[in-house]
Design a protein that fits this description.
The chain is mainly α and 219 residues long. The protein folds into 3 domains: 54 residues, no CATH class; 30 residues; 91 residues, no CATH class. The protein has 7 helices and no strands. The longest helix is centred in the middle third of the chain and has 35 residues. The protein is globular. It starts with 6 loop residues before the first helix and ends with a helix.
Length: 219
């Protein structure tokens, strides 16, 4: 939001537009996959689309798809990496992390927080299996979406007249469904992931109460 030229307009187009495009692409791919072969034959495959193409006698297309995935996945990771670095940047600026991490370089880029984020990601990726890390990230994402939905409803009551450049239609319905949906998906995750999520959040609360709370700008 801070890096967009016109966030009031650009964020709406970016969020809603990308969501609609992704949903349509996912539905089209799913329909094509299920229409090609029985879902039971590729449901447990780590590369279902490539498997389908090989089953249809298209090995070259399967190799092309596999190569495309290798190229595409790092771009997705890079996007998440940039997003996480900006979250850490805001936290540092608000006092929840050392303020020195929020300093910009001579070119106006958050180099310090980017390096800090890279170090955190490298340590996690080096010591935690990818499957468990992905499941833990899913749990964190669901928790974040739940928090956003709850905060949206709370702010409707606490600050009903606050300026809102982006309005959610039927907020109580949308917010309620979002919270219930995220909770349902969270409890569908493996029990081990839920336990690690609890441990991770206890550690985060420890950092907050022992360090960040007394230094927070809002406090």
């Amino acid at each position: 939001a801070e890096e967009a030229k016109n966030p009031d307009r650009d964020l709406k187009i970016g969020i809603v537009g990308s969501m609609i495009a992704c949903v349509l692409i996912y539905i089209a791919v799913a329909v094509a996959a299920v229409g090609a072969i029985s879902y039971s034959r590729f449901a447990n495959s780590p590369e279902p689309l490539a498997l389908i193409l090989r089953e249809l006698g298209q090995p070259l297309a399967a190799h092309y798809l596999a190569i495309s995935a290798v190229i595409a996945l790092p771009t997705v990771i890079l996007a998440f990496f940039y997003g996480q670095s900006r979250i850490f940047f805001t936290m540092a600026r608000d006092g929840l992390l050392p303020a020195s991490l929020a300093k910009l370089s001579a070119r106006g880029t958050p180099v310090r927080i980017t390096i800090f984020t890279a170090a955190v990601v490298a340590v996690l990726a080096g010591f935690i299996p990818l499957g468990e890390l992905a499941a833990l990230a899913n749990a964190g994402t669901l928790a974040a979406f739940t928090a956003v939905s709850v905060c949206m409803l709370i702010m409707r009551r606490r600050a009903p007249d606050a300026p809102r450049t982006f309005r959610a239609p039927m907020p109580w319905v949308v917010g309620g469904i979002a919270v219930l949906g995220c909770i349902y998906l969270f409890f569908s995750l493996p029990a081990k992931t839920q336990l690690w999520f609890l441990v991770w959040n206890i550690g985060g609360l420890g950092v907050y109460f022992l360090y960040a709370r007394s230094r927070a700008v809002a406090g």
